[in-house]
Amino acid sequence: MMTDQEKTIQDLDAKHHLHPFMPHPDIARKGARVITRAEGCYIYDDSGHKILDAMAGLWTTQIGTGREEMVQTAAEAMRQLSYYNTFFYTTHPNVARLAEKIAEKTPGDISKIHFASSGSEAVDTAYKLVKYYWNLKGQPQRKQFIARENAYHGSTAVAASLCGLSGMHEKYDLPIDGIHHVGPAPHYYNNGGEMTEDAFRDHCVQAIEDKILEIGPDNVAAFIGEPIQGAGGLIIPPEGYWTKVEALCRKYGILLWCDEVITGWGRTGKWFGSEYYGVTPDIITMAKGLTSGYQPLSAVALGGDIAETISQEEGEMVHGFTYSGHPVATAVGLKNIEIMEREGLIDTPDQDEKISYFSEQLSLLNDHPLVGETRTLGLLGAIELVKDKTTRARYSDEENVGFICREHCFDSGLVMRSVGNTMILCPPLVITTEQIDELIAKAREALDKTY
Ligand code: PLP
């Protein structure tokens, strides 16, 4: 039973708060869930209901929530230097140290880092820097970008244009010019049909090459892709896909841009998804796990010639934000990475064992009549809900099965996200094996209630 005060929060929220990605009249009718507190891998709502957060917030909270060490770090940073900018020939220790740390942790020869606050800002920044680069290189005709179907790259105008989800475009007169989407997304279960997985992989890569040739290789500025597509349905590409995509980019002199807002910072078991796949991007965009969500912070990391060219340019890089390299956010980022290193949360035998356990346990759900496929990579997982396991027939949008399952999860004390008929998991890197057991038991309970 809700108290008057809590009801007031729902009322205020319905009356004045425009939520991201929500139908507002429906929120007003139902009332938004009020989350009041979080600790470790759990969130708590206003009635004290304890919920295992198997989405790490929004693919964010690598080290879990509510850690006192992070609170102290933020408080101390705020006391020391609550704000100063990094424009006008000034810097501060936290931003310089974090830039060095990112350069150390990213694959290849990444060496130059520009900071922003959100993933979308990082994506918009990288898009501009790519254009800047080709202008500096005397190839101003290279202005076309290739992105993929099902991609999610953010909500600002450029980032939303790069998304390969029609819902991101329709209501906003997007995409902007110069952005091309290529399909199919490398989703073997959904799009592979009768092909073998290898044949399907080659088919996806060929589609990218065809697109490059259609646009004219000398006009293509960059190829952008999430190593694993996240919000588009947790799409794990077939083996060898990324090596082949990188080879294509090198063949045609196209910049390879990995958007690692989700796959960065330990999600795949390695520090970055590109490292997992053995590719060396020219550009990496990152956010979320960089601070585990304790502060808003994102970054664009540049390597190779784009890093060299932009950093050697005598003229001003006319770009930046008031909060580029915010002193508190960068302090928190540094502490977050220190904790991940100290606790062995990335690329260690213990973490690899946990990842294997997660994969084994999730695969046990394959026996459920509603489950067509489970798949995992690192601590990312998906469950495909189907009407018919053999034909892979899906439920219609109107049947809304993913949404129904998500609601049952909440009631059972579990956050799983639904993207259409796909249930998605992205637990904090600190999840324990006991909590993985709890996750699987609650997921099964929700599947039973949905079926
Ligand atoms: N890029 C990717 C791959 C993402 O998954 C997201 C958000 O989920 C973004 C960019 C946008 O990040 P933000 O929501 O912080 O703007």
Automatic annotation (TrEMBL):
Single GO MF annotation: pyridoxal phosphate binding
Cellular component terms (Gene Ontology): cytosol
Parts of the chain that traverse the membrane: none
Domain of life: Bacteria
Entry keyword set: Aminotransferase, Pyridoxal phosphate, Transferase
Family of this protein: Belongs to the class-III pyridoxal-phosphate-dependent aminotransferase family.
Name recorded for this polypeptide: Aminotransferase
Native source species: Temperatibacter marinus
Lineage: Bacteria, Pseudomonadati, Pseudomonadota, Alphaproteobacteria, Kordiimonadales
